[in-house]
Design brief:
Number of domains: 2
Distance between the termini: 139 Å
Largest sheet: none
Structural class: mainly alpha
Helix content: 55-70%
Oligomer: single chain
Order of helices and strands: HHHHHHHH
Number of helices: 8
Length: 206
């Protein structure tokens, strides 16, 4: 009887394993990674959106096999957040990955797998998670990391940093000019004093 039950449930067990495996693969969404690499020419790994650079599958920190019961619960809520604004906090996603799901919803995200280039248009137009002056949608198209402030187009980073630091640059310039002006007067005074001493030495003795 036991052998019969095991044989009867074996196909169901296999089906369950296949479904779980498929579900885990869907979490990775490699279509977006392939688009970034092809569009920007820059290599990126799963850490662009995920908590672990090797993606969600596995037993390392940030992967599904390592999640605690509380993290499993958070993951379940994130998977069920099909509409925008669900306050997603998936333990297998990083801040950018959670931001995407919060902004457009899981349903829209899965739909865009067929046209990953359209994700840039779907992202908020004012979103800049790393505050480097480059919008997240542009970072996605450029293949630069939206969570690393030092990773971006050099010219855009330079303009942003220069604009941000302009008051300090102005103050430093004024201090330099003031210093040069002060040194000029010091040198002029020293020169005048030296000339006066020379003149006194040149006067004939009575």
């Amino acid at each position: 009887m036991r052998a019969f039950c095991f044989i009867s449930f074996r196909p169901l067990l296999y089906a369950f394993v296949v479904l779980v495996s498929c579900a885990l693969r869907l979490e990775a969404n490699p279509e977006y990674q392939r688009f970034i690499v092809k569009n920007s020419g820059r290599p990126v790994n799963c850490a662009y959106c995920h908590a672990h650079p090797d993606g969600p599958e596995g037993t390392a920190p940030g992967q599904i096999g390592r999640l605690t019961a509380a993290e499993q619960e958070r993951l379940g809520r994130a998977r069920a957040s099909f509409e925008p604004g669900g306050k997603v906090d998936s333990p297998i996603l990083n801040e950018f990955g959670n931001h995407i799901i919060n902004s457009i919803g899981k349903k829209k995200f899965l739909e865009l797998r067929l046209a990953p280039e359209q994700l840039a248009q779907a992202l908020p137009k004012d979103s800049d998670l790393d505050h480097d002056g480059i919008l997240d949608l542009h970072e996605y198209l450029d293949g630069t990391h939206p969570l690393i402030a030092s990773d971006g187009r050099p010219w855009l980073l330079f303009k942003h940093n220069f604009k941000r630091d302009l008051p300090q640059v102005f103050l430093a310039l004024m201090a330099t000019l003031a210093g040069l002006y002060g040194w000029r007067h010091v040198l002029q005074g020293f020169s005048a004093a030296t000339q006066l001493k020379d003149d006194e030495n040149d006067e004939p003795a009575e």
